[in-house]
Amino acid sequence: MTVEDIAAAERAIGVRFPAALRAFYLEHNGGSPVDSAPHPLGVHGYEPLGTRGDLVQLHGDLSEISDEARAFIPFAYDAGGASFLAPSADDPDPRPALFFVDGGDLERIDHPLEALLPPGRSSAR
C-alpha cells in the first residue's frame, strides 16, 4: 500500500488513520498472522485495503448498523466474526473497540492499538 492508497481510504470513510495503523498498512495489506500461535488478544486476521470486500466497504456496512461505528476504522476480525476497530487519529480516546455485528454493540477495549497489530509488523502476510 502507498500513502496515496491510505489517503484515498481516509477520504472514502471520512476518518483519519492513527499513526500505528497507517504504518501497518504501509507495510502490509491485511492478511493473517504467519505463525500458527493464536494472537493473544484474539485477532484472527486483518482487513485489506483496495480490494473487493475491503475495509472501506466494511466501514460502510458497519456504519449502517451503528452510527457509533462511523468514527472508527475496521482493521481486523476475530474467529467469531467480530470486528476490531481502530479509533480515528482525532479521537481523544486512543483505545480501539470491538464491534459485535450480531447485537450492533461496540465496546472499547483496554489495550493499545499496537497490541492488536502483528509484532514487528513483518509477521503478517
Radius of gyration in whole Å, from Cα? 13 Å
Structural class designation = alpha+beta
Strand content: 15-25%
Widest beta sheet: strand line-up: 1-2-3-4-5
Number of DSSP helices? 4
- Rough shape? globular
Report how far apart the termini are. Answer: 13 Å
Give helix % range: 25-40%
Mean pLDDT: 88
H/E element order: HHEHEEEEH
Describe the structure.
Mean pLDDT is 88; it is low at 121-125. The chain has 4 helices and 5 strands, in the order ααβαββββα. The protein has 125 residues and is an alpha+beta fold. The chain has helices spanning 3-13, 19-27, 55-65, 113-116; strands spanning 45-46, 72-77, 83-87, 97-100, 105-108.
Describe what is shown at a glance.
By secondary structure, the protein is of the alpha+beta class.
Task: Itemize the secondary structure elements and their pairings.
Elements: H1 3-13, H2 19-27, E1 45-46, H3 55-65, E2 72-77, E3 83-87, E4 97-100, E5 105-108, H4 113-116
